[in-house]
Design a protein that fits this description.
Layout (H helix, E strand, L loop, with lengths): L2 H7 L6 H13 L4 H8 L4 H16 L9
Helix pairs in contact: 2-4
């Protein structure tokens, strides 16, 4: 079994609801912990939120600049 097949079988992709939940969590925390954690991982909260939004749009079939390829 290939890794891709395994991941597909595990249903590891986020659903629209899960994307929306994560966006709410990342957008709702204002104490700086999220930003510090993101910094430690070399990530940017705004970029993650934008990518989650694009993923949710893609799942819902809504075209946008981030998922038009």
């Amino acid at each position: 079994m290939s890794t891709l097949h395994f991941l597909d079988q595990m249903k590891s992709r986020l659903s629209v609801q899960e994307c929306d939940f994560l966006i709410d969590v990342l957008s709702g925390v204002r104490d700086g912990k999220i930003e510090r954690s993101a910094e430690e991982f070399g990530a940017n909260v705004k970029t993650v939120v934008n990518k989650l939004s694009a993923q949710a749009d893609l799942l819902e079939g809504i075209p946008n600049e981030a998922n038009n390829d």
